[in-house]
């Protein structure tokens, strides 16, 4: 098959990592794969090209630079891909308006669930609503979680065209490496005897860092050896608000902020417990599978498919309840003290067995091949359900 993916950029993020893994996996199986990006200049582009994936960049100058749209329209016609597969809302909306149905089949990549649009600006809200209105133009909608399927149907996307392909975790890259983790702790200035709770998440209202900081303040009162790490960047004003909250709640000196981790497996291995404090919007949070693949137990809020991914290998608590999150960290610490080696092995085993990247590539390949072969869309969406 000739497959053209489309995404805003390949900068750091869960959806970006998933697209990279999928594009690379399909290229390794002999398909002609290209990725169109509006913004270029990331390390992932070079890695994809080395794997045989063509990267087409439009070098967009900013949010209001509309000059790439004409070139994008031309690409959809000249590439003559069997499948055009955009990831995320703006890209699915643009593709629905531009992809020539007589040439290519259009697959929407939907990666979120239960968004609270009042937290975002007018344009983001508009694109989210346009995606639902234009979804009938898609031949197939691929979501990455059951929660995303439920939300997509509620938003008005065609239920008989929705298929679920859970995220895939590169369990060769994401694996236990305690020596690397200890070295990372030292680089952060953390004592190896500290109990480290870490979160990898961009600074976005949906990730609810305020919940994380409030829970950290409660946990630190009971555990003086506790230290906390936040990895992820976002708007400077929001970062300052969070820093002020950490200061006011007495955990600023125990909290390490780092805007980006160039080596995520090493970062995960530096944690005793990984966490995700999201309030809404999650479907399949990559960080849960990645941390668990590194043998790090997870405590997360009950958003998206988090509970199904974690199973009995971690803790899941209601969102927006910092006391519940802090109590779950305490229970996880006690489990680690009782039977840490077995728990660490179990969390990795669960991800390897259920969410290995090859499972995601296999299912995606079967769905796209069936679509290109002209099978009825409803049958394709129900395939392997």
Detailed description of the structure:
There is one protein chain. The chain is an alpha/beta fold. The protein has two domains: 193 residues, Glycogen Phosphorylase B (Rossmann fold, 3-Layer(aba) Sandwich), CATH 3.40.50; 178 residues, 3-Layer(aba) Sandwich (Rossmann fold). It contains 15 helices and 13 strands. Strands 3-2-1-4-5-6-7 form a seven-stranded parallel β-sheet, with helices on both faces.
Descriptors for this entry?
47% helix; Rossmann fold; 2 domains; single chain; 15 helices; 13 strands; alpha/beta; 7-stranded parallel beta sheet; 6-stranded parallel beta sheet; 385 residues
Q: Can you summarize this structure?
A:
The chain is α/β, with parallel strands linked by helices. The chain is built from 15 helices and 13 strands.
Strand residue percentage: 15-25%
Low-pLDDT windows of residues: none
Q: What is the number of helices?
A: 15
List the helices and strands in order.
EHEHEHEHEHEHEHEHEHEHEHEHEHHH
CATH architecture level-2 label of the largest domain? 3-Layer(aba) Sandwich
